[in-house]
Amino acid sequence: MFMTKEEIQEITGKKNKNAQCRILREKGYKFLTRGDGTPVMLKTAMPRASVKADGELLTELEIIKKAKPIKQTSGVYFLIQGGVVVYVGKSINVHKRIGEHIANPDKCFDAYHVIRASVHKMAYVEEAYIKALRPVHNVQLKPSEESQD
Description:
- By secondary structure, the protein is α+β, with helices and mostly antiparallel strands.
- 35% of the residues lie in helices and 17% in strands.
- It has six helices and five strands; from the N terminus they run H-H-E-E-H-E-E-H-E-H-H.
- The protein has a three-stranded antiparallel sheet with strand order 4-3-5. A two-stranded antiparallel ribbon has the order 1-2.
- Strand 3 and strand 4 (84-91) form a beta hairpin.
- It starts with a helix and ends with a helix.
């Protein structure tokens, strides 16, 4: 399911984990980083071939058959920089919201994670993680608010 260190090294051409992350980002691959900065990537994150084995382009029908539906996922998301959670947020469409963060040049993160949650549970889950992780880019609760559970 996950790519091996050797496979990541093969697609990046680099042994250094920071260089591997840089190359993966430049190539547009979706990946996460472990706490030590090592990239972790699902084998399914590799782009599929856009041409047939013989070099011919796919037909429009073949493209449509291989297409994946766009899913709207509600939940809590974590923005990660250098192996540290720097922001916790919630959204009824987390992928759209993460895209908005990516488009913002003031936001700096190199990975993300999503926990699916119903609209009714999102606020509770987000608040619990903000209290537990204390991400640097979340507005911190005042001491009087923290004690109210």
